[in-house]
Amino acid sequence: VLHTTRPLHTTQQNLAPVPPLPEKGGEVRHGLIPEEFFQFLYPKTGVTGPYMLGTGLLLYLLSKEIYVVNHETAAAACILTVIVYGIKKFGANVAAFADKLNEEKVASALAMKNEAMQTLQTAIEEEKKEQWRAEGRSYLFDAKRNNIAMLLETNYRERLLTVYHEVKKRLDYQVAMQSLKRQKEQDHMIQWVERNVIQSITPQQQKESVAKCILDLKALSKSAHATV
Amino acid sequence: GPLGERPLLEVRLGELHTWISTCSCSPQGLLGAVQRAWSGYCAKYIHVKQGGPAGISMLLAGYCLLSYGWNYQHFSKTSYFRNS
């Protein structure tokens, strides 16, 4: 619920940080009467003034029966005795226990605060480190640029090689085609010439050539016989 | 400071009359006064790091006195030492 009538942040005083609690409460004497009463009566009546006032008041109340003594008085007296005894005996222990509880709460809150501060401190360190790292981005980009240039160059050269191979293949094909054609023409021509020559050898000519060869052989054998 | 704004404990006996006349008697004024007195008492005796029995014992004593005052008729009628 927001109190819209309350002005917000118009004064210097604000709610946080909350001021710490005072160490000790106001002084009280005998657990019932604040110290201010004794200080109030001290200038006029000295130290025993309030006690005399208390005694006189008590006697007056009792004698005039403004305070009536009955069974409840006895009960009140017993209860008061027990309470005072209990406080005197266990007061310090209870106070120490409560103080310990408080200490634990404060210690845990302090630990949380310290941990949060530590976390933030490490976060600041990390952030500074990241900023330092970001300063080196020019080197990173140079390296990347070099890499990309290398890749482009490699790719270009590979493609150049491919082009060269392809062109060479096509030219080789043409060369092979031409040589094959020439060879085939040559073979065909040779066969044709041979066929025609063999065809043109008539049986007459064959007989004449065979006879001539025999004659030659005889002549040769004669000359060979002669040499041997 | 001015008379109308001082708390009760800082008012002298002679000026008590005029002080009472300056305080506001409207419901809001009385409620405000009661609230201020209660918060002052709490801040002084209860919301401290090391309070003693004084904080609640004064409240209990006040309660005892108040209840005695309310039942005074009953006490005086049923006393053992009545004069009748």
Determine the number of helices of chain B (DSSP H or I, runs of at least 4 residues). 4
Mean pLDDT of chain A: 89
- Summarize the amount of helix of chain B as a percent range: 55-70%
Number of domains of chain B: 2
Report the major sheet of chain B: none
Strand content of chain A: under 5%
* Mean residue pLDDT of chain B: 79
Main location (chain A): mitochondrion
Subcellular location (chain A): Mitochondrion; Mitochondrion inner membrane
Pfam families (chain A): Mt_ATP-synt_B
Family (chain A): Belongs to the eukaryotic ATPase B chain family.
Summary tags:
heterodimer; A: 228 residues; mainly alpha; two-stranded antiparallel sheet; 5 helices; 2 strands; B: 84 residues; 2 domains; 4 helices
Outline of this structure?
Chain A: This is ATP synthase subunit b. The complex is a heterodimer of chains A (228) and B (84). Chain A is mostly helical and 228 residues long.
Describe this structure in words.
Chain B: Its main location: mitochondrion. Chain B: Belongs to the ATPase F chain family. Chain B: Keywords: ATP synthesis, CF(0), Hydrogen ion transport, Ion transport, Membrane, Mitochondrion, Transport. The complex is a heterodimer of chains A (228) and B (84). Chain A has a two-stranded antiparallel sheet with strand order 1-2. Chain A has helices spanning 35-45, 49-63, 71-134, 137-200, 203-227, and strands at residues 28-29, 33-34. With 228 residues, chain A is an all-alpha fold. By secondary structure, chain B is an all-alpha fold. Chain B has two domains: 1-51, no CATH class; 52-83. Chain B is built from four helices and no strands. Chain B is extended. Classes of the chains: A mainly alpha (228), B mainly alpha (84). The interface between A and B is medium-sized, with 21 and 23 residues.
